[in-house]
Amino acid sequence: MINHNNGILKYQLNDFIVKEKINFSFSHKFHFKFINSKDLLINNLSNILSKSDEFKNKNLFLFFILKKENVTIFNVLLRLSKILKIPIKDFFFLGEKDKYAITYQSLFIKVNLDSIKKIINEFIENFNQNLEITSYNNDFNLSFVGIVYSSLDSLKDLLVGNEFFITIRKIPIEFENILIKRLEFLKNNYLPNYYDIQRFGKRLINHIIGLALNNKMYYEATYLLLCVYSNNENSKVKSKRKKIKELLLNNNINEVKDLKLPQYMDLEKVFLSILLKERNYKRAWKDFPYKFISIFKDSYNSFIFNYKLLTLLKQQSNLFNIISKKIDLKIPQEDKNFINENIISKINNKEIKEIFQNWDNFEYLFYYDLNYKKFNVDNGKYEGYRDYFIKPILKYYKLLDDDIFNGYKKLEISFYLPKGSFATNLFYYLLN
To answer: What is residue 320's predicted lDDT score, i.e. its pLDDT?
Structure first.
């Protein structure tokens, strides 16, 4: 549940539904084959195996739709890796989705000629005749769609955006007219395209891990990933991080195998399994699945983008009539000192060092009535790849009496955002 000044998000699981939108017609760099039965899939994979010379230089992926409820994508991948006996590095997804929500997204498994026989056996054993597999506690369902011949870079181009179906509850009746005005305003105007705080992890340090990795500070990145705890985390996670820190600083990291890490430390479990095998920080990061490393490097780029967007907005003379939101960092002071002394102070790039001097500053500005469409159009994009401002496509919205909170309203709203954009920006604007 997320409380805003004038409403509640995610009060119930089905109050927040996200569906990934992909488009196979956007690229000519791949071939897609739809398959709707287990027998047809096995026949196709067997055919590929019999024509090994023809397929040996092709990139082959199995394409699925993953529905998940109240679970992270990383936890799902860990479990699927065990069920299907497929290395976690062979799984690819196009975007991380909310945990406490019902989400639908694409999932790809890379296969090669050597793994096809094993995959056929796993499909026979684990998937039903409709090519579906459901977890024992029903928190995810995986449905097979087809075979894709493509490069990894081309797969990334498939994602075009996300569609949201949201119910916002406990809206005060006296806020109703203001909310309607803001919804009407959004029909023809744009919002700042910030990366929201979930991009930076629960502890708000993912961008610093990315900074350390970009500067080949592998021990420092390991320390941040495993040891730094936040007051945003529960007591079980905090105690595990403190114990790992004690072992790491005393060079007894091998003893970590005796710790039973909770579900919220899925990434840490994967990294530690590699570190215990490699016994080397650099090699452990090199062997860490690419998609997991990209979380931190993307977070690094996201922090720079937010800094530049915020700077652009603050250059305006009409800094009144705004919504301002600041997020406090909640990690121990000794770990803030570690970051400043062992990472920030050692950065050689002058521009990056200046940006990251305020690495713990998470500030978001929203104007009530600025027409972002006309705002500084010459500076409308960051380095050609991401718009500073976006226009949400509102498909439907309706204010109703709240069936849970008596005397309040609820807003049912459906909207579309392009890939990489955060729905939370829209909620900040509407509800604060």
So the answer is: 60
| Residues 52 and 245: beta-carbon distance below 8 Å | no
In contact, 191 and 97? CB cutoff 8 Å: no
Token pair, residue 158, equals 């498939």
Residues in the chain: 432
Q: Which two tokens stand for residue 8?
A: 């509640």
Domain 24-157 has CATH 3.40.50.1110: no
Q: Where would I find the H helices in 331-388?
A: 333-342, 350-356
Question: 243: buried, middle or exposed (CB in 10 Å: 19+, 13-18, 0-12)?
Answer: middle
Q: Which two tokens stand for residue 202?
A: 């629960």
Neighbours of 119 (CB within 10 A): 19
Q: Does the pLDDT value for residue 415 go beyond 70?
A: yes
Quickly state the pLDDT bin for 29 (edges 50, 70, 90): low
Per-residue pLDDT at 431 exceeds 50 = yes
Q: Write out the E strands in 185-263.
A: 191-192
Q: By C-alpha distance, which of 114, 113, 106, 124 is closest to 41?
A: 124
The domains of the chain are located at 1-17+165-187+394-432, 24-157, 206-294
Of the candidates 318, 313, 328, the residue with the CA atom closest to the CA atom of residue 192: 313
Q: Which residues, including other chains, have CB under 8 Å from residue 51's CB and lie 6 or more apart?
A: none
What gap in Å lies between CA 33 and CA 147, rounded to an integer?
Answer: 5
Q: What are the residues facing 64 on neighbouring strands?
A: 107, 144
Name the CA dihedral angle for 355, 323, 13, 268, rounded to a multiple of 10 degrees: 20
Q: Is residue 186's pLDDT more than 80?
A: yes
**What's the predicted TM-score (pTM) here?**
0.82
Q: DSSP letter for 139, please.
A: S
Q: What percent of the chain has pLDDT over 70?
A: 92
E strands of 40-155, at which residues?
60-69, 91-93, 102-111, 132-134, 140-149
